[in-house]
Design brief:
By secondary structure, this protein is of the alpha/beta class. The protein has 9 helices and 10 strands. The strands form 2 sheets. A 5-stranded parallel beta sheet has the order 3-2-4-1-5, sandwiched between helices. The chain has a 5-stranded mixed beta sheet with strand order 6-7-10-8-9, with helices on both faces. The chain binds S-adenosylmethionine (SAM). The site of S-adenosylmethionine has 24 residues, from helix 5, strand 7, strand 8 and strand 10.
């Protein structure tokens, strides 16, 4: 049926695509992608024919014109599939403006969900999963990065960051200094040949990378702030004050 279909693509291994995602790509009237080449290749791998359709490039920043064309197709009653280069669209990837515009115009907006590096990493990190905060990419400049980390310091859940191999050591160092030397995990090249998980404290992970830099795609996860435990002395004073208050 007519509507906007967000389609998740693999984050490494090509076979991590869902059967429904392939169905949507096979049947959509219009196919749009953040990266047309990688989607064409993925469709080739899985034997999904283009059948006279061409893949339209779309990025939230490609301007209102590109978005208007996709919205016009929806207005015409067509189905539009949209995929980003890897993983879930909209997750540190384009699609948000398109999603809002389509929903505001009253179109069906739905998703063929699939892998995302954030949840894959959370599954493997060995850190609590009951509550987590996806913080995406930190700013590049160290000053701005530290400021953002200060804002995140009190979040009561596991923090999830996307990182680049070039600056991950510097980020881990900033994290250790601003957040304290918390337990953390570095998840690299998930679902690929050189998948690797390092579980250690922030400072130790930073030192390891300073000694031997790594390549590839990286997710960093950091344990939540553990509130200062109340000391016996404080408890004693607090109890005394409370009891005195009650006896008045
Ligand atoms: N939309 C994608 C998702 O759902 O995960 C994320 C796109 S974002 C532009 C790319 C970043 O995701 C990379 O820089 C890296 O931090 C992370 N990432 C993507 N694939 C990964 C993988 N296989 N292993 C580790 N991190 C990955």
């Amino acid at each position: 049926p007519s509507g906007l279909y967000f389609v998740a693509t693999p984050i490494g291994t090509a076979r991590d695509i869902t059967l429904r995602a392939l169905d949507v790509l096979a049947s959509a009237d219009v196919i749009a992608a953040e990266d047309t080449r990688s989607l064409r290749k993925l469709m080739e791998i899985h034997g999904v024919p283009l059948n006279n359709r061409h893949i339209v490039a779309y990025h939230d920043h490609s301007g209102a014109g590109a978005r208007a064309k996709l919205l016009a197709a929806l207005d015409d009653g067509q189905s539009v599939a949209y995929a980003s280069e890897a993983g879930m669209p909209l997750i540190a990837d384009p699609g948000y403006d398109l999603s809002r515009a389509a929903a505001e115009a009253g179109h069906l907006v739905t998703v063929a969900p699939g892998p995302s590096a954030a949840l894959a990493a959370l599954t493997l990190a060995g850190l609590p999963t009951d509550a987590f905060f996806f913080a995406g990419f930190l700013p590049n400049a160290s000053g701005a990065r530290r400021k953002r980390l200060e804002e995140l310091a009190a979040v009561p859940g596991t923090l999830i960051f996307y990182e680049s191999p070039k600056r991950v050591a510097a980020s881990l160092r900033d994290m250790a200094e601003v957040l304290g030397d918390r337990p953390a995990a570095l998840c690299r090249e998930l679902t690929k040949k050189f998948e690797e998980i390092r579980r250690d404290t922030l400072a130790t992970l930073a030192t390891g990378l300073e000694d031997a830099p790594v390549k590839g795609e990286i997710v960093v996860l950091v344990d939540r702030h553990r509130g200062d435990s109340v000391s016996d002395g404080d408890l004693d004073t607090d109890l005394r004050a409370a009891l005195q208050g009650n006896s008045v």
